[in-house]
Amino acid sequence: MKPTSWREVLETIRQTDPDKAAGYDGITSGLLNFLTEHITEHPSYFLNILTCLLNVAYKSGQSLLSWRKAIISMISKKNDDGSFTKLVSEMRPISVMQEFGKLASKILANRMGSILLEHPQIMTPSQRAFLKDGSTSQCLHTALNVLEDFKEFNKRKPKSQLFMLAYDQSKAFDSVQAYTIQASLERFNLPKPFIDYVLSNLTEAKSCFKTFYGPTDDIAVQASVRQGDPLSPLIYICITDALHEGLRRNPLFDNCKTGYTFSNDAKLTVSSTGYADDTMTYAASWQDQWKMHEWVREFCWAHHFKLNAIKCKYFISDYQGLNDPRWLLSVDGNDLITPLPPSKQFRYLGLWISMDLSWSMQIQTLNKMVMDWRWRAVSAKVDPAQLKASITEYLLPKMDLGLSFANVTQKMCDAWLSTIIHTLCRGFNTVGSLNKSAFCVLSNIPDIFLRMQTSRITDIVVNLNTRKGLHGLTSRARFCQLMGFENANFEGALKAFQCVNLRTTASNRMSSSLKFLQQHQIELVLGEGCASGDAKPLALTQAISKTLRDSSSTNFFAYTDGSTTPNARYPNSGCSVVLTDHENKTLWSGGLVIRSDGNNFIAELAAASCVLKALPEDKFLTLRSDSRATLGALQNIRVSERRRIRASGRPWLNFCRTELNRNWSSIRFEHVSSHKGTQTLAQKGNDLADKIVNDYRILGTCVLLYTI
Question: Taking a C-beta distance cutoff of 8 angstroms, is the pair 1, 191 a contact?
Fold first, then answer.
């Protein structure tokens, strides 16, 4: 296991939320941030000692005994009716670990998360929890694509069947045994020191409960992965990976394939979707369903997991009533999991869905959100300015999940928008005659229907560009089916989209959004990603690359800057780059004019992107900038498709994405405060970049525009 460095420790400390609760020793992440906030080029004594301590733990494969004690807070779970659980047995125990122990786990979790992001084939595509590119929406997209495909197929072949089972596992994290952790991590061929370190957290581990009267006496922890340890989520999905692989190829029945196969793609079979312990299986026959459930029972029995038979939701498309004989057994065989009709709606990952795609409960939930917001605003007599902020920061984000998936019409969105406007303008007699669109523009409040369609279209574009995840593959299959292709010919379907008029169906969320695109004459074009054909940034990149290759040095410093005329109508900005070697000798300097439309972040990002794209594989670079936003965007470039497509400065991030990922271990990012003098070498380099960029900013007022 690779030892950590003080820079990795410092970066991890700065990633943590300073407002997190303290562990048993009273040390908070905010204190660690305070002790290290001044560190830039050289570590402090404290940071050196902390780094040494972490490396000793990693090398020995043993965490410190003091790191293994946690204080537990009981958090109530939300019931389906909106109430909260009151019994301790139904609450979620959250372990607050000692801060140094969490820091050690966080470093390992970051490493493991980056590996899973770069090599998604390691983990089953069914499990989407706790991954840097995973989200609940991916599971929901896959599930709804299966249900929509079956609904269309069932119209052509009424005798077809679909079985769907949503499992509820009792005390999922608390039931994990040490031998389960060891077997799961060894299955992924993880290093022995890493496995030993993880298992050491359960040896002589202790916890106490936080109460109104103070902490209780210590209790010994015999099992579980602690909900509070940064490594616990990744360990848990390593455990469930075997469960999902067994559902795909059942080891109890000669590795036979089970699941639901899409009607227009015989190669695409979805067996399960999972988000942590929320697992849902799909089968096209009673025989497959029985085989899959037997594997789940065997897996749970071997690892001492328990299923809550009452809370498990089991649906059959041709449900035969209360006496339907196709019931299933619990793990111990004492309870029955009885089938439910396809019209029964249930809550899955925060969304009310049903097998027959009824959306009445979810629409009712959305309507209740708006009415509750209105009642609170009126009863509390909230100021309109504060009320506007609550719309964009509270109400609409809360509605996003339902708006993204449910069968919500424009009429419903307009009704909710009218309620919002009337609440904002209560007391005005002319509110009924207001133009809603004009009011939204002037008050900077999003139109609910347009916001919904924008979110849905973003998801469509992201999913159609995803070729490895189930949410992407199933979305492509559904897109082809909507275009009338029996086989999954994606390129042909994409061409057909430009000339075929879609007929929307009431329960099809994708077709309504595609129809919206056609109505506004927006095309979907097959491309190979973002590549700039303009000579200016490429010429700058080539000049920088040649300088780096020709130099005998292997370590370089790059100072980048961007400049935009404040309060001006010029759409252009300037950006500059200064290259120095390890002896601070200037090797190259220059810049270019780019279009930013007044956003200086774009100019800062453009300069940095050109340098990163030019970096050869055998060179090391320290990128210094006075823009924290730019450094943050570049350091968080390994994100999901959805966040990537919504990112500010997306074209420039894509411009250097390949090279940045390739050379990640050879690049360091450092922030330099601007206009603070020229005492240090970093300040001198930044000052030179600042002088150069002003020339390009002035030049930008009289040259042709460049856009990427």
Answer: yes
Q: Which of 513, 517, 514, 456 is nearest to 483 (CA)?
A: 514
| pLDDT band, very low/low/confident/very high, at 498 (cuts 50, 70, 90) | confident
For residues 580-602, average pLDDT: 87
CA 225 to chain centre: 22
In degrees and rounded to multiples of 5, residue 95 shows phi and psi of: -90, 120
**Cα–Cα distance between 439 and 417 in angstroms, integer?**
11
For residue 257, report the phi and psi dihedrals to the nearest 5 degrees: -80, 135
**Mean pLDDT across 54-68:** 90
* H helical segments located in 597-675: 600-614, 628-635, 641-646, 650-662
Three-state secondary structure call for residue 120: helix
Q: What are the pLDDT digits (tens) for 376-387? A: 999 988 888 888
Strands 265-270 and 214-215: unpaired
> With contact defined as beta carbons under 8 Å apart, do 465 and 472 qualify?
yes
pLDDT at site 73: 84
pTM above 0.85, yes or no: no
Per-residue pLDDT at 282: 96
Closest CA to 392 of 462, 451, 343, 333: 451
| CB-based contacts of 469, cutoff 8 Å, min separation 6 | 120, 125, 128, 138
pLDDT of 507 > 60? The answer is: no
Nearest to 309 by CA among 143, 127, 166: 166
Longest C-alpha distance within the chain, in Å? Answer: 84
CA distances to 599, 615, 698 from 573, rounded to whole Å, are 8, 24, 8
Closest CA to 292 of 326, 337, 257: 257
Whether pLDDT at 707 is above 50:
no
CA distance 286 to 296: 15
Residue 624's closest CA among 572, 674, 679?
674
Torsion of CA 449, 453, 456, 461, to 10 degrees: -170
How does DSSP classify residue 531? -
